[in-house]
Specification:
Elements (H helix, E strand, L loop, with lengths): L1 H11 L1 E2 L7 H7 L4 E4 L7 H17 L4 E4 L3 H11 L8 H5 L13 H14 L9 E4 L5 H15 L1 H14 L7 H7 L8 H14 L7 H24 L4 H21 L6 E4 L2 H4 L15 H9 L4 E15 L8 E5 L7 H6 L4 E5 L37 H4 L2 E8 L23
Parallel strand pairs: 2-5, 2-6, 3-4, 3-5, 6-9
Antiparallel strand pairs: 1-8, 6-7, 8-9
Length: 431
Amino acid sequence: MKNSIIETLRNNKKDFKTTEDLQPLIDKIKDKKVVMLGEASHGTHEYYQWRARISRKLLEEHDFDFVVVEGDWPSCYQLNRHIKNYEEDGDIKEILKEFKRWPSWMWANWEVEEFAQWLKKFNKNQSANQRKGFYGLDVYSLWESLDAILDYLKKEDPSALETAREAMQCFEPYRDGDGQRYAMSTRMVPEGCRDEVREMLAEIREKATSYNSDKENVFSTEQNALIAKNAEEYYRVMVQGGASTWNLRDQHMMDTLNKLLEFHGSDAKGIVWAHNTNIGDASYTDMADDGLYNIGELARKEYGRDRVSLIGFGSYKGSVLAGSSWGAEVQKMKLPEGRDGSWEDLCHQEGEQFFVFSEDLKSNRDLQNRIPHRAVGVVYNPTHERPGNYVPSVIPERYDAFVFFDKSEALNNMDIEAEENKIPETYPFGF
């Protein structure tokens, strides 16, 4: 089995060193509606570097409209305003320091700064409706989203402000703690603050069309209200455990992607940056055995496999940024060699830096079996990789293409001090 897979890789891999070498990959994905670019960890330089290079080609040459990442909406939206040249004050480095929720290094790093600098420069020569955006997918920013709503309504709709304040007051007793405190409180009062956030969302949606401020700020306010509603539900069901929180989170990601595509018009095209566990179709992994699905699987169902491209990224060895426990100081850790017989080990046998298309792998029957495929979370112990660090996957079905690095290096962190956050349940499985 191992030799047969190695031979298939040898016959079909495409080595690359420069962005120009990626042209066959660009040609495959340039006409898709959605391109998802993965990562085997949240702390690897090469993944961020090459996702940015691929994204630049798609944004600059093939009419893609935005990048949406596995980050919080309020922080990403602040960066979005800056790179679209709506906000001239401050610099990108300072804005990135607003990514304070642990794990802050995911976005407060030099690789993201470089990409944001390019986006800002590119957008200066674009008309307002052609500027490329940068948004967040995630559901965790409950308090930040509530604060953003209050700030907006104070200026634009004082009549709706009272409804938003009622929602905020309901959550206020738990603000100085964490989402887990709110989650635990719902064991005694199961409905929690559900009615308050639903009423706030309904009122903002009803009045949104009458707001006279810029269109994107109106969209952002409605998105923050949706986050507040979904985050409340997330924390409320968190105490139940199981697949429900994972699926709720990825469904929120899919809903956010859909809203962004709708906002940018019927011909809009979007790029997603997220972990392989989110973008690689979960139905072809053991995640499906536990009832889990993800945004990659949902996008294929929503738009059809011919309009979506899922591209995994992985490496065999090197270094990575991660924490030894939830909320711990970020460390540069050794990334050990991939386990014998894993997808990383098989790729290691055949090259240093290459990509391969799944359609070229499907004829190999051995690759229709699940193969262990490494996934490194924000919490990681390189001396004792858990079974969960390897996700059994049917690689040619999980992805449409895969990008491999034999040796990878850790991200270049900005060394900002992240706010303490000790609720690992809010990042299921550490991914």
